[in-house]
Amino acid sequence: MNLRSILATVVALFALFGNVESQAVDLTYDQMVGWLKKGADICDQREKSSGSRDGECKDINTSIVLYEINDKLTVAMGERKSVLEQDARNCLWKNPKFKGKGDVLFDEISYCSPQIARACLAGDGGYCRMVAEVLFYDLPSRAKVLEFSCINGGDTIACFNLGVRYSKGEGVARDEAKAISLYQKACDLEYGTGCFNLGVHYSKGQGVAKDEAKANSFYQKACDLKNGSGCFNLGVRYSKGEGVARDEAKASSFYQKACDLKVGSGCFNLGNRYSKGEGVARDEAKAISFYQKACELDGDWCNSLGQRYMTGDGIPKDEAKGIGFFQKSCDAKKALGCRSLARNYERGRGVKQDPAKAYALYNQACDLGDGEACKRLGDRYSKGEGVVSDEAKASSFYQKACDLENDQCNDLGLKYMKGDGVPRDEAKGAGFFQKSCDAKKARGCRNLASSYYDGRGVKQDPAKAYALYNQTCDLGDGASCNSLGYSHEKGRGVAKDETRAAAWYKKACDLKYGEGCKNLSIYYANGRGGLTKDEAKSVALEDKACEYRSAAGCLWRGYAYFKGKGVTQDDKKAFDLFYRGCLSIDSDHYDDSAKACDYAALLKAREKDYQNAVKYEGFAIKFEPDNAGYHDNLGFYHLELGELDKAFVALNKAIELDPKKANAYANRAIAYSLKGEICKAVTDARKVCALNNASGVECLEKMLGTEQEKREFAKIKAAKCP
User: Fold this and answer.
1) Are residues 519 and 544 in contact, defined by beta-carbon separation less than 8 angstroms?
2) Three-state DSSP state, 136
């Protein structure tokens, strides 16, 4: 019964709207049956061509369908519309499946489809819309039914829904003018959402000339018609003075109306006002009650309420309550709630730290369309945090983040620039930086500027780079201010001017960008840029650079303690600074991060702590994988741990990267000797001496320091090899 009824309705309406224009229709019963037969013939043809029935026709016998139609639709089109409407209404409301809550479900409509079809064909637009919304699966057919419902049946909601389709181009050619005329018709018929959409169009100048006064008048009418979004938008406009005189009291009253009409954002904004005393008397108890009401109405606001409990913003700080609200938001399938919950499981804040749960929640938020969550998953795979490092997976998550939100495209651009997990394509990389910059993201603009500065992926244009750096510096991006200083220092795209360079470096430092402090430190150390030479200020700025996560700042201060330059030599202080520099990752200064890690490894090796030496040297290699010296050092540390296989991997890589790296051959000679392959050891020893313009193997001895190395050298020297 269910499938037959669906097909009866679909065939009837498909045949009807596929053969007549969208205007008032006066059908005879014979005409209707003729069109129904055409629809049945289509099903037969499909079965003959494909061997099976698909879609609406599947498993339906044409003769049974026609019998059902003749049996249930044997009425003249002139039969009274009110009787047919009552038949449909009785079927829907007497159906035991119907919940009585005003939500007509698929099963009810399917069950009552013959009665609904009769009411629709008699000219009741509401029932036509019901069929379109639930039983039609292809968008063009839905649009046709909605058009019939609006024009012939005068159904207000159908007019509105058809307007939405014209606005989006769903099932019809996109046409903003038609959309606006349909919203107007719905509004004239006192459908508040139609008025609201008109307000949005006039507010944005979308399809019509921008007109703030008209926008507000439509929002007002929408609000009067109990459309909460209209009331909310009026609240925002009175708060900001958009098209009306700014009036905080009126803003609060409209937020109250929106909240009463169950708009969560209205309740939340009203809570903010009571918390701050804007347009209402300050009242924290009321503020919290409105925040909670907002949360009950919309899970997104549970996330915001959770953030307030986590920070104590206008509410007594309570991390357990905060986590509870994040959970509630996530349970309501709100991406922000899941992401916030993930972040706290990741950090162990308010809950026991659980990286696996954090990962699962980030995945959930990403699947719910949160670009930031997808980006964080990309970060995890890129850095190997809690998962096996996988640049291809990292890039796929960055791609998903970018597809969801343009402001998340920067990291994908970096991947294409380097060829990490994707084929290297600098033009694509620059394109993704442009997307991020268009979304007003400082990092995207900065990297785009860098591309123009160096001519990577785009035609080199230092002047354009300078303009982009200026734009992002104004957005408060210290790195861009630092780049402006560098442009003036080098005269790239602008006149060379060290005084202006110093001013930009100062601004970068003031914005807590460590490289700016480091560069300003150099200027004070040398009395450049119109600054008086001042060693104390220079040192203080180096410290500040390290504090602000400048790898170079930490590296330089660490090196001062490492060498006892201007300070008392102190390996412990040196290590602490190198360690901080190693952790201070800046994609523009990987070389400084790598050097800091390398020095941290060296100091651990001095303590005979070769396990940690391997760890920090591994970080150095991650930052600079093509540095032969770092692979050589790693090979030596593995040798000291007795890990010969790992030592060979590292030393072979060092030699591959730099075939003239004498120290790598020296270490590999010791490795071969330890492995018992003495003649291979002799070959490497001779290579060392040849690179040092000597013959034999004796010069190798000068490069060795440990007792183990000296023992192995004695074997190499005594060996008789060709």
Assistant:
1) no
2) coil
Tokens representing 42 are 């289509």
Q: Where are the alpha helices (DSSP H) in 51-112?
A: 62-72, 81-94, 106-111
CA 220 to chain centre: 35
Q: Specify the residue for token string 């000797």.
A: 673
CA dist 616 and 607 (Å) reads 14
Cα separation of 410 and 447, whole Å?
8
The single-letter DSSP state of residue 57 is G
- Cβ contact 617:609 at 8 Å: no
**What share of residues in the chain are helix, strand, coil (percent, to 5)?**
75, 0, 25
Q: Per residue in 600-622, pLDDT tens?
A: 999 999 999 999 999 999 999 98
Helix (H, G, I), strand (E, B) or coil at 383: helix
* H/E element, 350: none
Sign of CA dihedral 96, 101, 104, 105: negative
Q: Closest Cα partner for 667 from 652, 677, 656, 678?
A: 652
What is the Cα–Cα distance from 493 to 472, expressed in whole angstroms? Answer: 16
Find out whether 403 and 413 touch, Cβ atoms under 8 Å.
Answer: no
Sign of the Cα pseudo-torsion (106, 157, 233, 208, in order): positive
CB atoms within 10 A of CB 679: 12
Q: Which two tokens stand for residue 80?
A: 């009274």
- pTM, two decimals, is 0.60
CA end-to-end distance (rounded Å), the chain: 94
Q: How far is CA 597 from the centre of its chain?
A: 31
pLDDT in tens, 622-631: 889 999 999 9
